[in-house]
Write a structure and sequence with these properties.
Oligomer: single chain
Distance between the termini: 43 Å
Number of helices: 12
Number of strands: 0
Order of helices and strands: HHHHHHHHHHHH
Low-confidence stretches: none
Shape: globular
Largest sheet: none
Mean pLDDT: 79
Strand content: under 5%
CATH superfamily: ABC transporter involved in vitamin B12 uptake, BtuC
CATH class: Mainly Alpha
Structural class: mainly alpha
Length: 285
């Protein structure tokens, strides 16, 4: 970008900046639920499942931005939601996190097998990991934002049920809530969010937006709302800083955001240690 004028750089980074500012809020909110549930890698598994659907659509001859590609991703994400719903049982024979990891590894390996038959294997593999935030069509950002608003409204309407199940599933079941039904509803909405954002930013950035700001906020606040606001602020700051850096240095925006969020977490953990605060317990609102 060093050979571009300031106006050209601004035009090029306009929609990546908008996407980084208006989309992470729902990911941070859902990330708090995921951390609370103790299934940290469920987002990575669903993101990779969505990416697998995209790879399959490419093999079928569709472009990554075609609606058919999105349909492939959504179908496999819904299937992944069903699988993840049934991995949590009253008598858990294997850790749910292990089963989630298996879903991720198998879908990642399957995606590599599919991409091995694609002429642009290395490019598509990189795109599935770090996305194409720099060249994302503005209409895709707008559609994603509208979807996020709708899902955010649904979560607000049923916030008591979702928070109850995330905070204390045993107590929620005792109160009469159908855990399996509400889990499937949660993962289905979660899958819609992940599928939409994977198409814009790739698997790694989805995972980072979901988990890193949520974990940072655990060190800084106690209430759910405070953690949400702090996590959103951390995600937004990291995004803006990364985009500003990529205007000076030719680096992938998605990977830059992931690394900046990682540095933010290190800073928060070191600050927490220097101040002598207790390390927060994961899974505690």
């Amino acid at each position: 970008m060093t050979d571009l004028t300031n106006a050209e750089v601004l035009s090029l980074l306009l929609w990546p900046m908008i996407a980084s500012l208006i989309l992470p809020w729902l990911l941070v909110y859902l990330g708090l639920h995921i951390v609370q549930r103790g299934v940290i890698f469920v987002d990575l598994a669903l993101a990779q499942t969505a990416a697998f659907g995209t790879c399959l659509s490419l093999l079928a001859g569709y472009d990554v931005h075609d609606w058919q590609s999105y349909a492939f991703s959504l179908a496999f994400t819904c299937l992944g939601s069903v699988v993840l719903t049934f991995t949590r049982t009253a008598e858990q024979k294997a850790p749910q996190e292990a089963l989630i990891g298996i879903v991720y590894v198998v879908t990642a390996a399957a995606a590599i097998l599919i991409l091995s038959k694609s002429p642009g294997e290395s490019h598509e593999l990189q795109r599935s990991l770090v996305g194409e935030l720099l060249v994302v069509p503005h209409m895709e950002v707008i559609r994603c934002f509208i979807l996020f608003l709708i899902i955010g409204c649904i979560h607000y309407k049923f916030r008591k049920q979702f928070l109850a199940i995330s905070a204390n599933p045993a107590a929620a079941a005792a109160s009469g809530l159908n855990l399996r039904l509400w889990d499937f509803f949660f993962y289905l909405l979660f899958g819609l969010v992940v599928t939409s954002f994977v198409h814009i930013a790739g698997v790694l950035l989805v995972f980072s937006y979901l988990v890193i700001p949520a974990v940072c906020s655990l060190y800084l606040a106690r209430s759910f709302m405070a953690r949400f606001l702090l996590g959103w602020g951390i995600a937004t700051t990291a995004s803006v800083m990364s985009i500003l850096v990529t205007t000076r240095v030719d680096l992938p925006i998605g990977a830059a955001v992931v690394c900046t969020l990682g540095l933010a977490l290190i800073g928060v953990m070191l600050g927490n240690r220097c101040l002598g605060k207790k390390t927060p317990r994961i899974g505690n609102f």
